């Protein structure tokens, strides 16, 4: 039976209610919300679906927890961050790094990045003493570079405010850059066994199926109910294992499409299994509309070096090296031609500052940009943007004497005043902190070169 939330008749919680004794304030809830909101949510689940009645029986909750924990002991994946201890308990730094990375991409990719990260920054101090440039290099390709930056700033805060020791208190944890309610609960519970439930997408899915909750998981109301429910079901004594078990169940058994209820340790408590409605959950309404964008990338090659820029004012690529590019269209609407011309003028100024001959500006600028050749098109997905990238290439003749300096130079003035520029070899491009879509541009270039599609131009 599906729980419908229309016109719920909410009742005031009774002081003797067993559930009131079991709940603990979640890190992102105020005490007031805890008293009024969550118990009513739980009562609502009970009232609307008789299969959920086991929530009122403490022994059943305990059996549910035991079944899940025993399954986890036998079936957990051997992930590297689960086997690193510090003073007999999981290393909180490792939990922090792995949880931050896991918000980015799939486990298999994270394992690689995680190992590389720990080889470079084995502890909080080494991370705090590194540079953002180095951090971005190690993170390169994972996307969401802001998270890497916050991890780095967070490490500096831990060193300066907490003497290099990550605190075990969720409020103190949330005072550290990059640590929100989710990561605070994950560090506090997994590393210190503190009784806080962790709610990621896997947990939302498992809970929505267990109790047939048809609330939108992205709505505030839905999120509050799921968090309260997760907190209510948490094994307070074994919070670390329990949280990981719930997430593991969602990641390996109660998966979005190919869920395997026959292998599920909590099948006997699952309402959607009993009503064969697993596919209806979780409910995701109001999906974020995806925007479309077309950009043009200029690959400027001179003596096996590529011109790259770094512009801190560009939101998507802040502080990362990128090939020059200009936006052509947003959601089907062309950007005024003037903007493209102005960007090309700016690019021309950079080239001129490297020694590109300036005869008569408009003429030499036009002949340069006319000589770019299209080499292909790729697609890249950001969270809310689908980007089509048109790539154009030009080989500048080595008869022109350009100076390719080792250090980055800055171009001041105009709209792009915070831009730095530098010439990179292919190898340097691969090793540098560049965004994933710029990596794809480089891969396209290398593919074309390998297949000799561009013979005419090499
Ligand atoms: S029984 Fe099936 S739907 Fe229910 S929690 Fe287990 S895997 Fe998910």
Automatic annotation (TrEMBL):
SUPFAM superfamilies: DNA-glycosylase, Nudix
Catalytic activity entry: Hydrolyzes free adenine bases from 7,8-dihydro-8-oxoguanine:adenine mismatched double-stranded DNA, leaving an apurinic site
The EC number(s) this enzyme carries: 3.2.2.31
Domain called HhH-GPD: residue spans: 101-252
Presence of the UniProt keyword Membrane in the record: no
Biological processes per GO annotation: base-excision repair; mismatch repair
Keywords of the record: 4Fe-4S, DNA damage, DNA repair, Glycosidase, Hydrolase, Iron, Iron-sulfur, Metal-binding
GO cellular component: nucleus
Region (Disordered): 1-31
Cofactor(s) the protein needs: [4Fe-4S] cluster
Cited SMART domains: ENDO3c
Compositional bias ranges of the Basic residues kind: 1-10
UniProt feature coiled coil, ranges: none
MF annotations from Gene Ontology: 4 iron, 4 sulfur cluster binding; 8-oxo-7,8-dihydroguanine DNA N-glycosylase activity; adenine/guanine mispair binding; metal ion binding; oxidized purine DNA binding; purine-specific mismatch base pair DNA N-glycosylase activity
Family: Belongs to the Nth/MutY family.
Protein known as: Adenine DNA glycosylase
Lineage: Eukaryota, Rhodophyta, Bangiophyceae, Galdieriales, Galdieriaceae
């Amino acid at each position: 039976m599906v729980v419908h939330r229309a016109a719920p008749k909410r009742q005031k919680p009774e002081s003797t209610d067993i559930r009131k004794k079991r709940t603990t304030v979640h890190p992102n809830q105020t005490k007031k919300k805890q008293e009024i909101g969550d118990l009513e949510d739980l009562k609502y689940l009970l009232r609307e679906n008789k299969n959920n009645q086991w929530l009122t029986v403490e022994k059943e909750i305990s059996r549910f927890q035991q079944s899940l924990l025993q399954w986890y002991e036998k079936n957990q994946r051997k992930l590297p961050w689960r086997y690193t201890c510090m003073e007999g308990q999981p290393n909180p730094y490792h939990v922090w790094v792995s949880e931050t990375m896991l918000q980015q991409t799939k486990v298999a990719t994270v394992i690689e990045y995680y190992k590389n990260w720990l080889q470079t920054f084995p502890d909080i101090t080494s991370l705090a003493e590194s540079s953002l440039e180095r951090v971005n290099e190690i993170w390169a390709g994972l996307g969401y570079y802001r998270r890497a930056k916050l991890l780095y700033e967070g490490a500096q805060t831990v060193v300066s405010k907490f003497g290099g020791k990550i605190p075990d208190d969720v409020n103190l944890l949330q005072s550290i850059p990059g640590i929100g309610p989710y990561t605070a609960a994950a560090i506090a519970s997994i590393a210190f066994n503190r009784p806080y439930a962790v709610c990621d997408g896997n947990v939302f899915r498992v809970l929505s199926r267990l109790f047939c909750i048809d609330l939108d998981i992205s709505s505030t109301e839905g999120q509050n109910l799921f968090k309260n429910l997760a907190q209510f079901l948490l094994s307070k004594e074994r919070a670390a294992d329990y949280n990981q078990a719930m997430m593991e169940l969602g990641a390996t058994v109660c998966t979005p499409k190919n869920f395997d209820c026959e292998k599920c340790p909590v099948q006997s408590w699952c309402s959607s299994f009993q009503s064969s409605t697993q596919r209806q959950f979780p409910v995701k309404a109001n999906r974020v509309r995806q925007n479309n964008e077309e950009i043009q990338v200029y690959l400027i090659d001179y003596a096996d070096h590529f011109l790259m820029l770094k512009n801190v004012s560009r939101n998507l690529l802040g502080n990362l090296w990128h090939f020059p590019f200009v936006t052509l269209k947003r959601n089907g609407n062309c950007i005024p031609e003037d903007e493209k011309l102005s960007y090309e003028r700016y690019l021309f100024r950079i080239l001129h500052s490297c020694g590109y001959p300036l005869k008569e500006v408009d003429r030499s600028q036009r002949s340069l940009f006319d000589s770019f050749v299209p080499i292909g098109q790729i697609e890249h997905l950001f969270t809310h943007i689908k980007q089509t990238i048109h790539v154009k290439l030009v080989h500048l003749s080595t008869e022109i004497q350009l100076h390719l300096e080792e250090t980055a130079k800055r171009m001041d003035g105009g709209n792009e005043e915070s831009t730095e520029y530098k010439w990179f070899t292919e190898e340097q491009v691969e090793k540098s902190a560049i965004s994933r879509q710029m990596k794809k541009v480089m891969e396209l270039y290398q593919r074309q070169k390998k297949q000799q599609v561009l013979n005419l131009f090499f």
